[in-house]
Design brief:
Radius of gyration of chain A: 24 Å
CATH topology of one domain in chain A: Four Helix Bundle (Hemerythrin (Met), subunit A)
Chains: A mainly alpha (about 180), B mainly alpha (about 625), C mainly alpha (about 120)
Largest interface: A-C, 85 and 79 residues
Strand content of chain A: under 5%
Order of helices and strands of chain C: HHEEH
CATH class of one domain in chain A: Mainly Alpha
CATH class of chain C: Mainly Alpha
Largest sheet of chain A: none
Shape of chain A: extended
Radius of gyration of chain C: 18 Å
Shape of chain C: elongated
Number of helices of chain A: 6
Oligomer: heterotrimer
CATH superfamily of one domain in chain A: NADH-ubiquinone/plastoquinone oxidoreductase chain 6, subunit NuoJ
Number of domains of chain C: 1
Structural class of chain C: mainly alpha
Distance between the termini of chain A: 94 Å
Helix content of chain A: 55-70%
CATH topology of chain C: Helix Hairpins
Number of strands of chain C: 2
Order of helices and strands of chain A: HHHHHH
Number of helices of chain C: 3
Chain lengths: ~180, ~625, ~120
C-alpha cells in the first residue's frame, strides 16, 4: 500500500467515523467534537488530492472557527440542565430510510456516470499561489462577492443576536414651541 | 300588400295589440281594459267581415307569405296568411263569438277583481285563434295551436286561488299536450319530407301523384290526428273538458264550445284532402268519433251540473263533426261547426245568466230560485236546446241533417243507425236539461209566485243588459244560420253532390221522429206537472254512476298512467337528489376532504418537509438518470 | 492515487450521513452540524471531480478546462463554498440564540407554527 493510499483510507475513515459520531451521539459536545474529527478527515482527503492550501483553510475555518462558534452557541442557548429526551424509534428509522434512499439514488447516478477520468496525474499547479492567482484573476467577482457576503453575515449575526433593547427606549420628545 | 292581406293581418293583430295594452298598462283600470279589448276584437270582427266579403263571397282564394327567418340555403321560416272561404268564414265565426262573449262578460264578470287580466287573456286568445285560422303553413299552425292551449290554461285557471280551477287548468294543459306530442311529430315528419311547405302545397303533395309516399301520408295523418283528438276532446283524451268548466262561464262559452275545441275539427277541414289520402286513418277516426259521440251523450244524460251537460254535449257534437269529415264531406262538418258555435255559445251564455242569478251550477238548485223570471235566459236556453236537438227551423237541424246525409252516402248502415240514435239521445238530454232547469218542480209551484228578495232586481241589474242582449242576439242567429248551408256547400266543396236538409226524404223524417221521441221522453220524465224528475238511466244507480264518472276513464288513468308517471317522476327526483346532487356534493366534499388530507403534510415540521423534498428529488433524479436524460 | 469513484463514494456517504442527521436530530444546533457536513461533502465532490476527471474538453466556470488546463478550479469553488458555509453558520447560530430567547426552546419539533 502506498503512502497516498494509506492517507486516503485513514482520512476517509476519520471523515466518515467523525460524521457518524457527529450525528449519532447524544451529547452535543460530543457531536461537535465528532464534527471536528470529520473535517480533519476531509482535510486529509483534500491533501491526497493535492489541494494543500484548501486543506489548511478547511481546518482553520471549519474546525478552528465554526466548531468553536458552535460551542459558544451551545453555551448560550442549549438546555444543558435538562435531560435529553429519548429518541423516537420511528424517527430514527425514517431518517435512516431516507438517507439510504438518497444514497442509493446518488450511487445509481454517480456510479453509472462515465467520467473521462485521468487519475494518476496531479497537476503541478495546485499550490496556494495558483489558487491566489485565480482568485484575484479570473474569479475576482466571486472573491469580492464572498467578502461582501461575509461582511453582511457578520453584521447580520450581531444584529440578530442582540437583545431587543432599543424597543424599550423612551420615545424622543416632540419639539415644543419655545415661549 | 293587398287589401285582403292587410285585413287578414288586422284580424290577427288587433287583438294582440289590445292584449299587450291591457296586460302591460291597464291592469289597474278594469273598465278601460274592457273597452280596449272590445275595441280590438271589434276591429278584428270588421276585418274578418271584410275578408268574407272580398274573398269568400266571390270565392277568390289568396295566399300571401313572407320569409322572416332564413335557416339555410333551402329552408326558411315564413309567416303568411291563407285566405279562402273556409278560413275567412271561420275567422268571422271566431270574431263574432269572441266579441259576443266579451260584451257579455262586461256584465257577468263585473265584480271580479281580475277583470282586467280576464280581458287581457281573452284578447290573447283572440289573437291566437285568429292566427291559427289564417295561418299559411303547418309550423305556423302549430305555434298558434300551442298559444291557444296557453290561453285555455290561463282562462280555465282564472280563479287560480282555488284548488279546483288550478287543477283543471293543469289537467287540460297536460292532456292536450299528450295529443300535441303526436301533432308535433307529424309536423316534423312533414317538414323533413317537404321543407316548410304551405298548406296548399302540402295538400297537393299528398295527392296520389304527389311527392309524399302513401305510407308517410298515413303515418303523418295519424300523428296529426293525435293532436286533434287532444284538442277536440275525443276518444281517450276527453276527460279534461268537463273539468274545464271550472273556468268562468263566458270562457266555457268561447273556448270550450265554440272555438278552441273546434280548432281540431278546423284542422281536419283545412287539410281535408290530405287526410282523405289516408283512408285507413279516416276509418279509424269515424269509429272513434262515433264512440265518443255516443259515450258522452250517455254522460250528459245523468249530469246534474248544467255546465257539465253542455260540456258533454260539446264533445258529442264535435264527434258528429269529425264523423262527417271522416265520411268525406268538408261542407257538412264545417257547417255544423259554424252552427254549433252559435247555439252552443248561446246555451252557455244563457246558462250563465241562471248561474249568475242563482250562484250555483246545479240545475235542481237553479230551478228552486225562480228561473222563469230570467226571460232572456229562458229564451236562450230553449232556442239553443232546440238547435242542439235539431228541431226545424233552428240552425242545428240543417247542419245535423247535412251530417246524417253525408254519413248515409258514405258510411256503413250500422254507423248511420248509431248516428241517428245519437240524434235522439241528444234531443233527450237537451230537453232534460231544459225541463230540469225551468219546469216547476213538485211542491214548488207556488214558490215561484213568492219570488226571492233579489228577484226584482234582474231587469235593471247592472250589467244585465249586456248579458241579456248578447243572448237574445245569438238566439236570433240560430234562426237564421241554418240557411247558410247551401252557400257554404257551394264554396267549400264544389264537386260534392248536394244532399241534405232541403231534400225531403227518408233521412230527415227519421231524424225528426227520433228527435220528437227524445223530447217527449224528456217531457214525460221531467217536464210535466208531477213528474218524478228522475231519468230512466238514473233509476239504475250502477249505470248512473258509470255514466256520471266519465265512464270511469279518470279512474283508469289515475290507476295506470298517473301512477306510472308519478313513479317515474319520483325516480327522477331521487336521481336528482342522490345522484346528481350527490355527485356534485361528493365532488365538493371530496375536494375538501382531499384538501384536508393533503394539509396533513403541511404539519409545520421542517424535517418532514425535508424528507418529502429529498425523497422526491432522489426518485426523480434516479428516474431521469435511468431514462438517459441526465447527461 | 485512488480512483475517482472512491472519492465520490466517500463524498456521497458523507452527504447521506449529514442528511440523516439533518432529518433525525431535534436540536437546531445538531441540525446545523449535519448541514455543515453536507456542505463539506459537496466541496469534496467538486474538488475530486475537477482534479481527477477534467480530461474532457469543456468549460467550467467560464474558464477553459481540458487537458493541460484541468486543475483545481474546483479548489476555488471549494474555497467559496467554505466562505459561504462560514457565513451561513454564523448567522444561523445567532438566530438560534435569538430563537432561544423568543421561544425558550431550540427543539425543532416545537417550532411548528407555520402549518396548514
Amino acid at each position: 500500500m502506498t503512502w497516498s493510499a494509506a492517507v486516503f483510507w485513514l482520512s476517509g475513515a476519520m471523515a466518515l467515523g467523525g460524521a457518524a459520531l457527529a450525528v449519532g451521539l447524544k451529547s452535543i459536545f460530543h457531536n461537535i467534537l465528532g464534527f471536528a474529527l470529520a473535517l480533519v478527515g476531509v482535510a486529509g482527503l483534500f491533501l491526497t488530492l493535492g489541494s494543500d492550501f484548501l486543506a489548511a483553510v478547511l481546518i482553520l475555518v471549519y474546525v478552528g472557527a465554526l466548531a468553536i462558534a458552535m460551542v459558544y452557541a451551545v453555551m448560550l442557548s442549549y438546555p444543558l440542565d435538562t435531560q435529553p429526551q429519548p429518541r423516537r424509534a420511528a424517527k430514527v428509522l425514517g431518517a435512516a430510510a431516507l438517507s439510504l434512499l438518497a444514497a442509493v439514488a446518488l450511487f445509481v447516478i454517480v456510479l453509472g456516470a462515465d467520467f473521462a477520468s485521468s487519475y494518476g496525474l496531479i497537476d503541478p499547479e495546485t499550490s496556494a499561489r495558483w489558487v491566489g492567482r485565480r482568485l484575484l484573476g479570473d474569479y475576482v467577482l466571486a472573491f469580492e462577492l464572498i467578502s461582501v457576503l461575509l461582511v453582511v453575515a457578520m453584521i447580520g449575526a450581531v444584529m440578530v443576536a442582540r437583545k431587543a433593547r432599543m424597543a424599550k427606549a423612551p420615545p424622543t420628545p416632540t419639539p415644543r414651541m419655545i415661549g | 300588400m293587398t287589401g285582403p292581406t292587410l285585413a287578414a293581418l288586422l284580424t290577427q293583430f288587433a287583438p294582440l295589440a289590445a292584449c299587450a295594452v291591457v296586460l302591460l298598462g291597464l291592469r289597474a283600470r278594469p273598465r278601460a281594459a274592457a273597452a280596449v279589448a272590445i275595441t280590438g276584437m271589434a276591429v278584428s270582427f270588421a276585418a274578418a267581415a271584410g275578408l268574407v266579403a272580398s274573398v269568400a263571397v266571390p270565392d277568390r282564394p289568396l295566399l300571401a307569405q313572407t320569409v322572416f327567418l332564413p335557416v339555410d340555403a333551402a329552408h326558411a321560416l315564413s309567416f303568411g296568411v291563407l285566405l279562402d272561404p273556409l278560413s275567412t268564414v271561420m275567422a268571422l265565426v271566431v270574431a263574432t263569438v269572441t266579441l259576443a262573449v266579451m260584451i257579455y262578460s262586461t256584465g257577468y264578470m263585473r265584480d271580479d277583481p281580475g277583470y282586467a287580466r280576464y280581458y287581457g287573456f281573452l284578447s290573447l286568445f283572440g289573437w291566437a285563434m285568429q292566427g291559427l285560422v289564417l295561418s299559411a303553413n303547418l309550423l305556423q299552425t302549430l305555434v298558434f295551436w300551442e298559444l291557444v292551449g296557453l290561453a285555455s290554461f290561463l282562462l280555465i285557471g282564472f280563479w287560480f286561488e282555488r284548488p279546483a280551477p288550478a287543477a283543471a287548468a293543469r289537467k287540460a294543459f297536460l292532456m292536450t299536450r299528450v295529443g300535441d306530442v303526436g301533432f308535433l311529430l307529424g309536423v316534423l315528419l312533414l317538414i323533413r319530407a317537404l321543407g316548410l311547405a304551405t298548406i296548399p302545397d302540402l295538400v297537393a303533395a299528398a295527392a296520389p301523384g304527389g311527392s309524399l309516399s302513401p305510407r308517410l301520408v298515413t303515418v303523418t295523418a295519424a300523428l296529426l290526428l293525435m293532436g286533434v283528438i287532444g284538442k277536440s276532446a275525443q276518444g281517450p283524451l276527453f276527460t279534461w273538458l268537463p273539468d274545464a268548466m271550472e273556468g268562468p262561464t263566458p270562457v266555457s262559452a268561447l273556448l270550450h264550445s265554440a272555438t278552441m275545441v273546434a280548432a281540431g275539427v278546423y284542422l281536419v277541414a283545412r287539410l281535408h284532402p290530405f287526410f282523405l289520402a289516408a283512408p285507413a286513418v279516416m276509418h279509424g277516426l269515424l269509429y272513434l268519433a262515433l264512440a265518443t259521440m255516443l259515450a258522452t251523450a250517455t254522460m250528459a244524460m245523468v249530469a246534474s251540473d248544467i255546465k257539465r251537460v253542455l260540456a258533454y254535449s260539446t264533445i258529442s257534437q264535435l264527434g258528429y263533426m269529425l264523423m262527417a269529415l271522416a265520411a268525406g264531406s268538408t261542407a257538412a262538418g264545417f257547417f255544423h261547426l259554424t252552427t254549433h258555435a252559435g247555439f252552443k255559445a248561446l246555451l252557455f251564455l244563457s246558462a250563465g245568466i241562471f248561474i249568475h242569478h242563482a250562484h250555483t251550477n246545479e240545475m235542481r238548485d237553479i230551478n228552486a230560485r225562480d228561473p222563469l223570471a230570467q226571460r232572456a235566459g229562458v229564451i236562450g236556453l230553449v232556442a239553443g236546446s232546440a238547435a242542439l236537438a235539431g228541431i226545424v227551423p233552428f240552425s242545428g237541424y240543417f247542419s245535423k241533417e247535412a251530417i246524417l246525409g253525408a254519413l248515409g252516402t258514405a258510411a256503413a248502415p250500422w254507423v248511420v243507425a248509431l248516428a241517428y240514435l245519437g240524434a235522439g239521445l241528444t234531443a233527450y238530454y237537451a230537453f232534460r236539461m231544459v225541463f230540469l232547469t225551468l219546469a216547476q218542480a213538485r211542491g214548488h209551484a207556488d214558490a215561484g209566485a213568492h219570488a226571492d228578495g233579489d228577484a226584482s232586481g234582474h231587469g235593471g241589474a247592472p250589467g244585465a243588459r249586456a248579458m241579456h242582449g248578447t243572448v237574445l242576439v245569438l238566439a236570433a242567429l240560430t234562426l237564421v244560420l241554418g240557411y247558410l248551408g247551401p252557400w257554404l256547400e257551394a264554396r267549400l266543396a264544389p264537386g260534392e253532390a248536394a244532399h241534405g236538409p232541403f231534400t225531403v226524404g227518408l233521412g230527415p223524417a227519421a231524424a225528426l221522429t227520433l228527435v220528437a221521441g227524445g223530447v217527449a221522453l224528456a217531457w214525460y220524465e221531467f217536464g210535466r206537472q208531477g213528474a218524478a224528475r228522475v231519468g230512466f238511466v238514473e233509476r239504475v244507480p250502477a249505470l248512473a254512476r258509470f255514466f256520471g264518472d266519465n265512464w270511469y276513464l279518470d279512474r283508469l288513468y289515475r290507476a295506470t298512467v298517473i301512477r306510472w308517471a308519478t313513479a317515474l317522476s319520483r325516480a327522477a327526483h331521487w336521481n336528482d337528489e342522490k345522484v346528481v346532487n350527490g355527485a356534485t356534493d361528493g365532488l365538493a366534499s371530496g375536494t375538501v376532504g382531499g384538501g384536508r388530507l393533503l394539509a396533513l403534510i403541511q404539519n409545520g415540521y421542517v424535517q418532514a418537509y425535508l424528507a418529502v423534498v429529498v425523497t422526491l428529488i432522489a426518485v426523480l433524479a434516479a428516474v431521469l438518470d435511468r431514462l438517459g436524460l441526465v447527461r | 492515487m485512488m480512483p475517482l469513484s472512491a472519492y465520490l463514494t466517500v463524498s456521497v456517504a458523507l452527504f447521506c450521513i449529514g442528511l440523516y442527521g439533518l432529518v433525525q436530530r431535534r436540536s437546531l444546533i445538531a441540525m446545523l452540524i449535519a448541514l455543515e457536513l453536507m456542505l463539506a461533502a459537496a466541496s469534496l465532490n467538486v474538488v475530486a471531480l475537477t482534479t481527477l476527471a477534467s480530461g474532457a474538453q469543456g468549460t467550467l466556470l467560464l474558464a477553459p478546462v481540458g487537458i493541460g488546463n484541468r486543475s483545481s478550479v474546483g479548489q476555488v469553488v471549494a474555497l467559496i463554498l467554505i466562505g459561504v458555509a462560514a457565513a451561513e453558520a454564523a448567522i444561523a447560530l445567532s438566530l438560534f440564540v435569538a430563537i432561544q430567547r423568543y421561544a425558550s426552546t431550540i427543539n425543532v419539533e416545537d417550532l411548528s407554527e407555520l402549518k396548514g
